[in-house]
Amino acid sequence: MSNQEVAEAQTFYETDSGLGKMCLGDSRDALAEMETESVDLIVTSPPFGLVREKEYGNVSADNYLEWFGTFAETFRRVLKDTGSLVVDIGGAWNKGEPTRSLYHFKLAVMLVEEYGFHLAQEFFWWNKAKLPSPAEWVTIRRIRVKDAVNMVWWFSKTPYPKASNKRVLEPYSKSQMDLFENGYNPKERPSGHNISDNFSNENEGSIPPNILVVPNTKSSGKYYRYCEENDIDVHPARFPEAIPELFIRMTTDEEDTIVDPFAGSCVTGAVAERLRRNWICIDTEKEYLKGALGRFEGEETSGGSQSKDETYYEIPKTGLLWEQLPEEPLPEDGGRTR
Asked: How far apart are CA 216 and CA 338, in angstroms?
């Protein structure tokens, strides 16, 4: 979404490898030119439905479903039956109240009930570096906790899209490694789950949960240098490489086709290029695509989505400070007044 109007989608840039290209224009126009059932994965972070307008353009939460619906049918047409649609979307607060909008949940319901998608799974992206927000309810009146999670909806055209979690395994935890070393007695848990002796088999890694712990603090590197050197504004709402990379690895093979219809600075394209997938990134804002050139020009991008000093994050156990905190009286009016 942008204030800039582009009459027709046009190729803005193509990589030397021939794997990918960026298109300037409305993704509905660009996708209209694509063959039916030709795309393996659509992964994107569209403008969120917010109460306040942002500089990168967004639709109000009230009008969001109608707006997104104009893309949904096109997405379904170009996706293969084995393909997936992944949508990263943040929540919103109702205007003037410490209550939440339901628009991002309604979006999931709409895509399933009106457009025939299946909800393969929901993911929760916890951005550990996110600032306390909204300030009015969190840091001023202190009646809510900070909003630090985005929903990442994974949809598919059939109940069985192409996928394998073996592509995205994680290191085993210390406790699990201790079990491998010291052994485990198979038994039935109080919940009724039967833990067999297969639980002690060491495989290539641990199956990840649907909680993604990915900070969005990166403020250096090739893209940033390019924008600075060419006097281009950095895109204000990038999402980290690890988000598209997980789904690209889990649901596509080399030379499959990936599309990001709200590409922004083309993070999806950069990951797809590195993983040898065909890709198309589309955006209506020329300035964002100009900055995205910095992801592809110059030295080759190497390595994965995380640096060595970001291998693990320390997460405090809930309740560590509770016994040490004074229990002040709660505001009688629920925080209606400051």
From this structure: 31
Q: Does 178 qualify as catalytic in the annotation?
A: no
Select which of 26, 88, 256, 260 is catalytic. 88
The domain limits of the chain are 10-170+208-324, 171-206
This prediction has a pTM of: 0.86
Determine whether 45 is an active site residue.
yes
Does 88 qualify as catalytic in the annotation?
yes
Token reading at 324: 């040490």
Residue 191, pLDDT > 70, answer no
pLDDT mean over 304-316: 63
Report in angstroms the alpha-carbon separations of 186 from 41, 149, 172, 193, 195: 40, 36, 19, 11, 5
Catalytic residue among 26, 27, 40, 46: 46
CATH number for 10-170+208-324: choose from 2.60.40.10, 3.10.20.30, 3.40.50.150, 3.40.50.300. 3.40.50.150
Tens digit of each residue's pLDDT (9 = 90 or more) over 192-236: 555 555 555 667 788 999 999 988 766 668 898 999 999 998 888
